[in-house]
């Protein structure tokens, strides 16, 4: 494998998969795990997917066994380069392609493939530029704040890449739910599935998972609330614990299939 660089770590994703991350850059969190298990994909690995703002490639790596191919776009060159090495390390270069560039630019989207994807995913910045607590590390700050792309930019890029009838899935903070839905519908992406995420029963949801479909008619399914923490493995609820162990027998709406 490529040697790790200074300030890098090699982290285990389970199932023999690993990811390279930098100690002083944005590192993936539980949010990526929740999104990967929310995404609805067809059986038999038929789907071509795109990931907007992939970081070091966490979502394509988590979904690799459920897809035919992925194109993952990342603006920050050092993050994109780590993603390339992680893809090679896991023997997935024939299935996952990393594109270093700005998905707000049409030439970058065209390089990925206009209207070429069955599904697009994104874990976009949660806070508007100038809001929320800033982080002194620019990579972390860009991942948390809309310094390079707004939610409207994310929705527009997803719509540009999706086939008609394709699905866009994202995770975001509940305080911006109305704004996110407005951005999606403006881009001809109709919200179809919504799942609120709470830390514990009785607590107000802080996050939501949302799937929108390109060109669809209105009609939103409210899914059961997802509780993160409980008495399962690692202090997680049984459902979230199963995202790590693969042993969940409930009906709360884990990763969808068709």
What report would you give on this structure?
- Helix 6 (151-161) packs parallel to helix 7.
- The chain has helices spanning 30-38, 58-63, 77-89, 106-112, 138-144, 151-161, 177-186, 238-245; strands spanning 8-14, 17-22, 48-52, 69-74, 96-100, 117-122, 162-173, 189-198, 207-214, 221-222, 226-227.
- The strands form two sheets. Strands 3, 4, 5, 6, 7, 8, 9, 10 and 11 form a nine-stranded mixed sheet that branches.
- The protein is globular and about 50 Å long.
- The model is unreliable at 248-256 (pLDDT under 50).
- The termini are far apart.
- The protein is an alpha/beta fold and 258 residues long.
- Strand 4, helix 3 (77-89) and strand 5 form a beta-alpha-beta unit.
- It is built from eight helices and eleven strands.
Helical content class: 25-40%
What class, by secondary structure content? alpha/beta
Main sheet characteristics: 9 strands, mixed
Number of helices: 8
Uncertain runs are 248-256
Radius of gyration: 17 Å
Helix and strand element order: EEHEHEHEHEHHEHEEEEH
Distance between the termini: 36 Å
- Tally of DSSP β-strands: 11
Question: What is the average of the pLDDT values?
Answer: 90
**Beta-strand content:** 25-35%
Task: Please describe the structure with a list of short key phrases separated by commas or semicolons.
single chain; 258 residues; alpha/beta; nine-stranded mixed beta sheet; two-stranded antiparallel sheet; 11 strands; disordered C terminus
